[in-house]
Amino acid sequence: MWTVHGSLSASTRLHSEVVSFQSRSPVLPRSQIKCLQTANFSSIWGTKAETFSFSRRIAAVESPWCEETILPRLRCPPRRKVWGFRIFAVLQWNRRPQLAGQVPRVVVVTSGKGGVGKTTTTANIGLCLARLDFKVVAVDADVGLRNLDLLLGLENRVNYTAMEVLNGECRLDQALIRDKRWTNLELLCINKPRYKMPLGFGGKALTWLVDALKKRPEGSPDFILIDCPAGIDAGFITAITPANEAVLVTTPDITSLRDADRVTGLLECDGIKDIKMIVNRVRSDMIKGEDMMSVLDVQEMLGLPLLGVIPEDAEVIRSTNRGYPLVLNKPPTLAGLAFEQAAWRLVEQDSMKAVLVEEAPVRKSFLPFLG
């Protein structure tokens, strides 16, 4: 794995994982990107070393400048200071992701096993899509144990739910809660936690709500994200009925993978063929110690396109307790950047592929003070 020493400057709004080497040349167009590799960045300022352990894709462009200037410097020995160029992320702020597929796109976020991060994924990806200037409606389909309003910080504003809309007690726009930070993100809760789910509510009722969202006078949303409850019982069947896409959230452990494989079969039987996978709570130190399955092993076991890899981050718990989504943190965290990249791929119906990268052995000197 490459280790590049230099000065790294990154922005708080990362909308692309493409990393470009640039000295005196302009921003590289997408047409010149030749190959993508994986690298870890280690940036040194003076005597303090700060290591960015998250992976980035390095874009090697098809140009003599790259082949003559960049590639020889990438092969420099470790602990050598490289001068003359900077490394920074090309954020692609000058373009908006191209929305693929038929609008609105109804996406269900499911897993089968509880506690793997479905609600966290729905909240952060929904807010990322809103920041990309898309209209998003997040539907919390977990009736008895709803938590999406807590993660978005909207728990005190839930006055009406979808059940009041179906009973004729309020209008649909009264049940939709608009986020004050990003007004193109709205939340719809199915029911209040202290009430039981009526026997008449099912897949047809949720499909009617989705159709009503499509026919709103304000215009149809671009994305309708459905937070699916855990398990494969009636709540799961209700949540996946109106969806035409699915995001399967799993963790790299055998219990989550077995449930994810079962849920994949149920989604395909229901007619949902566009299924992508997010691997959550990945720890690179445990993978190196062979105590946790790698992302490549997870992808080979499930055989699904990979939408994103979310590293383990303690900031997730802090943001959840504050009701402040992770992607709004400044400076951005590793998990927040991974959610933004996953949202970008979801918009363009793209996917990533896990690759096996062998690390070069570290040469140590026989004298400790020489490194």
TrEMBL record:
GO terms for molecular function: ATP binding; ATP hydrolysis activity. InterPro entries: CobQ/CobB/MinD/ParA_Nub-bd_dom (IPR002586), MinD (IPR010223), P-loop_NTPase (IPR027417), ParA/MinD_ATPase (IPR050625). Transmembrane segments: none annotated. The keyword Methyltransferase does not apply. The keyword Electron transport does not apply. GO terms for biological process: negative regulation of cell division. Keywords: ATP-binding, Chloroplast, Nucleotide-binding, Plastid. One of its GO terms (cellular component) is cytoplasmic side of plasma membrane. Residues 107-325 form the CobQ/CobB/MinD/ParA nucleotide binding domain. Belongs to the ParA family. MinD subfamily. This is CobQ/CobB/MinD/ParA nucleotide binding domain-containing protein. It comes from Ceratopteris richardii.
